[in-house]
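Section 3.1 - Work completed
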Amino acid sequence: MSSSMLSSFSETLNASEAALRLLISILLGLPIALFHRYTLYGKSPILQHLFFSISGILICYWNYEHNTFHSAATLCITYLILKLFGGTSLSVFATFVFNMSYLLYGYYTTSTDDYDIKWTMPQCVLTLRLIGLAFNIFDGKKSEEKLSALQKQVALKEQPTFLEVAAFTYFPGSFLVGPQFSMKRYLDFVNGRLIDDSVKKDEIKLPDCVTPGITRILIGFIYVIMFQLGTLYIPDQYLLSTEFLKHNFLKRLLMIGFWGHVNLYKYVFCWLFSEGVCTTFGLTYNGRDKKNRPVWNGCENIQLLTFETATRFNYLILSFNINTNHWCAEYIYKRLKFLGSKLYSQFATLLFLAVWHGFHSGYYVCFFMEFIIMYAERDLTQILERNEKVQDLVKSHPEIRIAFAIFTFIYTFMFMGYSLVPFILLSYTRYHQVYSSIYYSGHIIYLSYPFVSILLKKFLIKRKPKKLE
């Protein structure tokens, strides 16, 4: 597709050429997946590795041209580290430092004041993928007793070949925007160990991974439409306009909530497209349900029903960007047990996520907001659950439960948008202007909560009487 055609099409859709090229590239994975399913699936693993590597590199080159060098260089140097030191703590350390340093170098040399669609986008996906690979090889050298149940599932007993790592790197269904998955899942897929025999024998009609894959992609198009309409209704610049200030305080909060929620749709439809492609390949197979039907959620990155109806921030976080959150939980949070505190581990994990996103101050403010909001939500939930009167009142009055659910839905909707202001606007001058228009209300609420919680615990939690000696 020529640049002139892309340019005119992007103007019609009111989208950047880079964004349109990215979407087309993700969707190109669908015909590639169909070709693989009907001609290469179950064939020589080497042939499949070559197919995935070449397809992914060509798509990468169409998007980033000579900047394809960056992912190739990262792949080669990481493989060399793993070949020389694989299975040791040194290999994990060196892989982590090299990949994060290279990614931050990319951010430093390419970033602007806006959200950039450049070679650093697939590079940030690749960074997690290769660091995770180093951990999996490291875990494979440990004894079984020292591994968790999940570590046993993804640990690698043997060092992957260069071709296997290259195909894993450039897998056409996921290297642009994710989802993250383990090398073990990829190797099981290519070697025919992932999907059971009853699925593989179905040679006459379409494999049953195609229908759920295409369905996921079609749902993605619905979110494209909602994103386009939503951002036309409240574009980013509207929050910075004098017209926005004419609304009352509550309406401003609600509008920010709507704006933030709609802006997340650009991630949602990208993930739905890539997940649909991965499902069409058959990579997302996750066993069978109670009715013996195949389950295709092995690379699910968004749980739509939970995301759209969340009444707590925790539900939103658990339903959004699932694979990246899972990666951080396994390779950062759980590896920080030596800190001796879940709170410290969570803070360090969110700090890692902020650094992984880039240097914009908005990322750090956003993840700090997530940290203090989650602390307040967990603490307040525990206080209310420990108060018997509150629990009895809620259980005996269904209308109170309904009213509480509606209130918490609106509250979550508004303050999730509030939290996303710096993540989307990135620069201090812009997000400060928006926060000033609502008097930094969220910061005041959550930063003052530790002091408020002292009073809440005093009046709502009964202390057990001390036993007389």
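Second construct:
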Amino acid sequence: VIWAVMAAVTIVLLRNTPYGRKIYSVGTNEQAARFSGIHTGRVTFSVYLISAVIAAVSGFFLVGYTGTSFLDVGTSYNTKTIAAVIIGGTAITGGKGGYIGTIAGAIIMTILDDFLTIVNIPEAGRQIMQGVIIVLLVLIYSREKHKK
């Protein structure tokens, strides 16, 4: 429920506010955004700050869910997160993508992970599959950029 509320707020913030447009313009071309009067340093700092707060809240939920706390508690989610974002259509180089695509990518990654678990693929095999997906999509996105 908390994630659904945060997702709705994020989508509205990014699509319907001047701040959201500033985030996208800084991500697309920082120099052009600076020339158009946007304080790119402030926008970048605020995005990192918001990201850190959300990561901290997520960490609290993860520790509450697992019931344990140790230094690498969320490390196993790194490749899943990156793969979900890339599957959702967000360019690693910035300027392209959106939160709705990321939600779709997260759903796809969850389904894929559940399927691989059902067919008894070990964790290492699942991580290899996620890495292969990331590499393939990066190659596809880079080919699209060269075609343009």
